[in-house]
């Protein structure tokens, strides 16, 4: 049969309680304090990360709005430049048409003078030829 020694049980129980108390004070309390500090640091880091993420989203939204605005401005500028280029091109075309018309008019007047001059020469030659033919046909000299 097993002998139970109550004194031994009480001494072991007291030693266990003293050991548990000392272990709690020496080991568990500092470890728990360290865990709580780390937990607080992690929470602070998570909060800071969330704030940074919100700021990043805000910045991204701001940049997207600025980019959209810049694209619209660029489109407006390109349209203005295109319209200006078209207007300038049309103006240049009108100027060239004016120059061509002026050139035609100048050349038409010059050509008309040349035609009149050539017609006068042809008429003069025709008269001379007619007179020469008449003289030959009549065998005498005609007086003009």
What does this structure look like?
By secondary structure, the protein is mostly helical. Helix content is 92%, strand content 0%. It contains 1 helix and no strands. It has one helix at residues 6-138. The protein is rod-shaped and about 190 Å long. The N and C termini lie far apart (184 Å).
What are the salient characteristics of this protein?
144 residues, rod-shaped, mainly alpha
Task: Summarize it.
The chain is mainly α. Helix content is 92%, strand content 0%.
Mean pLDDT: 89
Backbone shape: rod-shaped
What distance separates the N and C termini? 184 Å
Q: Give the radius of gyration.
A: 59 Å
Number of strands: 0
Instruction: Give unreliable regions as ranges.
Output: none
